[in-house]
């Protein structure tokens, strides 16, 4: 059996597909059928091009809001890591002083 190769889509094609969903209000499944791609592919493109967030409940964020959310998530991740380091250091020094 011959192995099927992956179809390659141009960035313009992907952006146009996302526009059909976002700006024209067409459903993801409808756009996917009309373009001959799987609906999960359209969803991935929507996330990739910043039209929707990959996390549930984030809604439709645009431009600056999406960038701020991305920056804040990175900051929270950094702060959590620093907190864990401080917890371990405090436990270490408490053990050493007793």
Automatic annotation (TrEMBL):
Keywords associated with the record: Coiled coil
InterPro entries referenced in this protein's UniProt entry, alphabetically: Homeodomain-like_sf, RD_transcriptional_regulator, Transposase_8
Residue runs in coiled coils: 62-89
GO molecular function, one term: transposase activity
Transmembrane segments: none
GO BP annotation list: DNA transposition
SUPFAM superfamilies linked to this entry: Homeodomain-like
Record carries keyword Ribosomal protein: no
Family indicated by similarity: Belongs to the transposase 8 family.
Name of the molecule in the record: Transposase IS3/IS911 family protein
Organism: Thiorhodococcus drewsii AZ1
